[in-house]
Write a structure and sequence with these properties.
Layout: E1 8-12, H1 18-27, E2 32-37, H2 43-52, E3 56-61, H3 67-81, E4 86-89, H4 104-132, E5 135-140, H5 144-147, H6 153-172, E6 178-185, E7 187-188, H7 191-200, E8 210-211, H8 213-226, E9 230-233, H9 239-247, H10 249-258, H11 261-274
Length: 275
């Protein structure tokens, strides 16, 4: 799908980290964006930046954990934009902590924001896309959804769910003009990873490395333009490792341990407990 000044886009998680960068990338296409976030303290600033870069933007503060937040997001997007061409499910939260120590409400919040909200928004906006025989749904997943790091159970589960959800959507709506893509970044120098670094002084394992946020923006545009099912964003190729883990799970588990990802999150969890 080509993105231009006639394209109408809903982007969740718009006022922080990767979301803010995606707003700037999409603004340069001239598209009309509906920016959604909670609590949304920077949405007006992001809106101004989108307009400066040549796009159009409206914004809405909405809590996507709630029925009211989902309904207001869908209704306001369709009312203001007059329809929807691209939905980008980017909103996400995480907690790095031993699973048995994680409050149950925090677990539910992760699943509701990262996965259930994406599914609910998609379900409610699909009729508009199907009616015009054109649309694209992008789910912002994570390498955590493929390699499942320690101390990240709800986050990993929610991100893995987005991968399966995307592939199922592609199969269901093949030939309808509506498609879907999933983007799976590893460590990215902004957002969640940046906050973990600032709180703990830790850095990503050298065997995995970290990506510039610009790489995520390029992946997003490429996935939409070329209808790519699944894009991994990481400076060091990891798809062969993931494929090996699927073929030989025990060996794959050992190799993933060797990358240092599990140990990184274990140490992060320890430091967060003492901070």
């Amino acid at each position: 799908m080509k993105i231009d000044s006639s394209t109408r886009i809903l982007l969740t998680g718009a006022s922080g980290g990767i979301g803010t960068h995606l707003c700037e990338v999409l603004a340069r296409t001239g598209a009309h964006l509906m920016l959604v976030a909670n609590p949304g303290v920077d949405l007006r600033i992001v809106q101004k930046r989108v307009i400066e870069l040549g796009g159009k933007a409206d914004y809405l503060v909405a809590d996507l954990r709630t029925d009211e937040g989902i309904t207001s997001t869908v209704d306001e997007t369709l009312r203001v934009l007059g329809g929807i061409d691209i939905l980008i499910n980017n909103a996400g939260i995480e907690y790095t902590i031993a699973y048995h120590e994680l409050p149950e409400q925090d677990m539910l919040d992760v699943m509701n924001v990262n996965l259930i909200a994406a599914m609910r928004l998609t379900r409610r906006l699909l009729p508009s896309m199907l009616g015009q025989k054109k649309g694209h749904i992008v789910c912002m997943s994570s390498l955590a959804g493929r390699a499942a790091p320690a101390y990240q159970e709800p986050y990993a589960a929610s991100k893995a769910g987005l991968v399966a959800f995307t592939y199922s959507l592609r199969a269901t709506y093949r030939g309808s003009g509506v498609s879907a893509s999933v983007i799976c970044p590893g460590f990215v120098d902004t957002g969640i990873y940046q906050r973990l670094c600032e709180k703990t002084g830790m850095k990503a394992p050298s065997l995995l490395g970290s990506s510039k946020v610009e790489a995520v923006g390029r992946a997003l545009l490429r996935a939409i333009a070329s209808d790519i099912p699944d894009v991994l964003v990481n400076p060091i190729p990891v798809r062969p490792l993931l494929a090996l883990a699927q073929l030989f799970p025990k060996l794959g588990e050992k190799l993933i341990i060797a990358t240092g990802g599990h140990e990184f999150f274990r140490r992060v969890a320890e430091r967060l407990k003492t901070n």
